[in-house]
């Protein structure tokens, strides 16, 4: 399949990013290789971002911003706006199941697991397997001790407006929270090994899993699905 060409806006972002990178790389002592390590990609991928071959997303833009010690808006005003809109949306999204603890609450750590592990969380969870998990992001949200983080995959939950969960964002899943219509949930379809992330809705008495990206279809729940948990927090993973 032929790769979709970048939009003029995305090409402008790449041009600004490349100019910024070239202007600061000597002073900062960075290279495409060191940036690739920060992004967790190959050097060729960094080259493609800088030369407008592949488009930036919020996750990669945030990593570039950190390496360059510059705000995202310095090279991509559109992604900076998307990130600000996302943060604002999440701060007012209590009706969707994202609930804050009282001010001053202590943050708790939860394991960041794979989507396949999420699909078998109840069956697979053992003390020894938890000790093998290296990344334990914190949250001040209300969540059960059995809660876990997942990293969003794909763009099915990336919305053109309102609440959005782009690829790379991490979400905290509470398996003990009762799913209600309007909640964002993690579900497992009978014929699928991996779990899926969608919004639970009810229309005319029928339950559906709804993607936030209108390019994806609704999934009707007909007894072929198990809700594994409700999303109670979402944020970007801090890169140390």
UniProtKB/TrEMBL annotation:
SMART domains: HTH_XRE. It comes from Yersinia aleksiciae. This is Peptidase S24. GO terms for molecular function: DNA binding. Residues 26-75 form the HTH cro/C1-type domain. It comes from the Bacteria.
